[in-house]
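Hi, here's the filled form for the chain we discussed.

Project: internal
Contact: R.S.
Residues: 348
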Amino acid sequence: MNRKLMIALLSILPLNGWTQTQVTEFNPGIAANGVNYVLPKTVLKINVQAKKVVYTPGEYAKYAKRFLHIEATTESYTQWSTDNLTVYQEGVPDTSKVFTVKLKDKSVAPMVQLTESGILVAVNTTTALDEYAAPPTHTTHHRLQAQQYLTEDILSATSVAKMAELTAQEILDIRESKNAIKRGQVESMPKDGASLKIVLDELDRQERALTQLFTGYADTTFTTQTFSILPTGDIRQQVLFRFSQKLGFVDADDLAGEPYYMAIKDMHTVVLPDEKENSKRKINGLVYNMPSMANVIISTLQGNLYERELPFAQFGTIDMLSPTLFNKEATTKLTLNPATGGIMHLEQ
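And the returned structure, exactly as it came back:
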């Protein structure tokens, strides 16, 4: 069983009559014959993947133009860039919305599925919970072992310039050999296509490795940082994080990085009850959230990177399902969104 799921199955007792499952507000310190559950607040999660490129120049970089007629950078550098951005939501317990599904005498209480933190996600059924995990940091190394292809003449050269010249000549000889094989102009041609491919692949490896002594190589690292926002109201152009092409992720107040902004605006798609209505409200059914939609924007000085309307529990209100939906004769199955507490599926 998934460790993040907890299924509470209340006892099923013999029925002598038609009764209903009772839901009450949670009373701390009072033992209740039932199961406590909590509704969530909605947390916005942003996974930002960044790519780090570390360039190391070749040993013969300054001779690349002279001997191979190619441009090569002679200075090492590190460069960062944002590669991907993923937005999703998670629920955290809202301690102001804790309720108890009580088991009355001679009644049938539902099977209740809770998350590990006690958030109600299903009644009389089960649902799989999506798990989002930032991909692990990983580095790809691109340095090739050129030393194994250096000839005796190259190794015995008395200056770097001479070594570079002889290495360049070796590269040109490899290219000439490849062309001769492709044209069928060598005395001992490979006997079949597979053998031909093996020979050409080995010559390619030698050429790439020796050329790297002039052009250098770049190792790439992909890393992901996760940012969490639990909004309690509208957010206007809040700095989510800063990012530097030289340093990568930096603190939100570090001016060395370019700002990435977060904006959240409640669209008020749910009518909230006033104080008078709240005071008259009586808990007499299964309580769930009615989330309100909010416009979410992530942007930089260059423009928007992400814009979408998403539901948030804390911008909405609560409502109740009729107790008759869970009486003896009913087969109601309910699935709630674990991030918002809103109804995803209701089947009778």
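Let me know if anything looks off before we file it.
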